[in-house]
Design a protein that fits this description.
The chain is built from nine helices and nine strands. With 260 residues, it is an alpha/beta fold. It folds into two domains: 180 residues, 3-Layer(aba) Sandwich (Rossmann fold); 60 residues, Helicase, Ruva Protein, domain 3 (Orthogonal Bundle), CATH 1.10.8. It has a seven-stranded mixed beta sheet with strand order 4-3-2-5-6-9-7, sandwiched between helices. Helix 4 links the parallel strand 5 and strand 6. The longest helix has 13 residues. The chain is elongated. The chain starts with 13 loop residues before the first strand and ends with a helix.
């Protein structure tokens, strides 16, 4: 069977560098038994995951041409190829146990993949993914960085996020217009935030939706008693200056003073 043709609407850029593929596969350090690769394409990463001992390995692929290619070239995978859209899947149907995630993520859905990871954070102990370098850096950036944002805070609340290495454009077919970055997420010990988690999300989103303003101004859409705001230094800061822990403390204050 001939090689799979990359499809623009699926955001496909096939990695051609074997060493980089091996390094990504070796990025899994905390996996348990079950490992799921998202978007294996022609299996450049897959071939280094199949031999790993002690894992129950599956792949999920939306492109039917890639599914046919994998079935022909990796017969040991037959029965472990899920043809479908990862974003629409119930991961509990794959396994009710822990499930590590790995892949060369399509640029156009990488953020959606990580939001889904958060939905299953109690099931997913580790993620190793390659995505657009700018997005990878944002997810791993610490407070105080200009690229620190909503998803940075949400992920770092429950995961230790590490930027592993950069991948140049020329090692893909077709080459993307930007560099890629590989990151690793390892679940931390936080089972539940010490605040109302729904309100926490609301506060973080409200803050970063007007990131150039101080929190005193950007949080005006949340109705809470603002009598003490002028006395509290945290409200003079901009959202990118706050750590996860500070967002938790801010949420607790607002929770105690809600007017709704």
């Amino acid at each position: 069977m001939k090689n799979v043709k990359a499809k623009k609407h699926l955001g496909q850029h096939f990695l051609t560098d074997e060493l980089i593929a091996k390094n990504i596969a070796d990025g899994l350090i905390n996996h348990q038994t079950n490992v799921l690769e998202i978007g294996p394409g022609m299996g450049v990463l897959t071939k280094y995951l199949i031999p790993k001992e002690g894992i129950n390995f599956k792949v999920v692929e939306l492109d039917t041409e890639s599914v046919a290619y994998l079935e022909q070239h990796y017969p040991s995978l037959r029965g472990n190829i899920i043809s479908g859209d990862f974003l629409k899947m119930d991961l509990k149907e794959i396994t009710t146990d822990s499930l590590s995630i790995i892949g060369n993520f399509p640029y156009n859905i990488s953020s959606q993949i990580f939001f889904k990871v958060l939905d299953y954070k109690d099931q997913i102990p580790e993620v190793v993914g390659m995505l657009q370098k700018e997005v990878a850096e944002r997810l791993a950036s610490p407070p105080g960085s200009k690229v620190y944002g909503i998803l940075s805070v949400f992920l770092q609340a429950y995961y230790d996020v590490e930027y592993l290495f950069t991948v140049d454009e020329h090692v893909f077919d077709p080459p993307p217009k930007v560099k890629s970055g590989v990151i690793r997420l390892v679940r931390n010990n936080v089972e539940k935030l010490d605040c109302d988690e729904k309100l926490f999300k609301r506060v973080v989103k409200a803050g970063f939706n007007q990131r150039r303003k101080t929190l005193s101004n950007s949080l005006k859409g949340i109705p809470f008693n603002r009598e003490k705001v002028s006395e509290m230094e945290i409200f003079t800061k901009r959202p990118e200056q706050l750590s996860v822990e500070q967002f938790v403390e801010l949420t607790k204050f607002i929770q105690l003073n809600l007017l709704e």
